[in-house]
Amino acid sequence: PPIGLESHRIEDDQILASSMLRHGLGAQRGRLNMQAGTNEDDFFDGAWCAEDDSRAHWLEVDTRRITMFTGVITQGRDSQIHDDFVTNFYVGFSNDSQNWVMYSNGYEEMMFYGNVDKDTPVLSEFPEPVVARYIRIYPQRWNGSLCLRLEVLGCPLSAVSSYYTQQNEVTSTDNLDFRHHSYKDMRQLMKVVNEECPTITRIYNIGKSSRGLKIYAMEISDNPGEHEMGEPEFRYTAGLHGNEALGRELLLLLMQFLCKEYQDGNPRVRGLVTDTRIHLVPSLNPDGYELAHEAVRGWWGGMGCGVKQCGRMWGAVGCGAVGWDGKVVECSPLPTALGVPQPPHPHPGAIPVRGCGVETRAVMAWMDKNPFVLGANLQGGEKLVSFPFDTARPSPPTPAAAPRPLDYEDEHPELQETPDHAVFRWLAISYASAHLTMTETFRGGCHAQDVTDTMGIVQGAKWHPRAGSMNDFSYLHTNCLELSLYLGCDKFPHESELQQEWENNKESLLTFMEQIHRGIKGVVTDQQGEPIANATIVVGGINHNVRTASGGDYWRILNPGEYRVSARAEGYNPSVKTCHVLYDIGATQCNFVLSRSNWKRIREIMAMNGNRPIRRVVPGRPMTPRERLRLRMRLRHRMRLREQMRLRRLNATMATSGPTAPPSTTALPFPFSSTVYTPWSQEPPTASTWEMDTETEVVTELVTEME
Question: What predicted TM-score, i.e. pTM, was given to this entire model?
Answer without folding.
Answer: 0.72
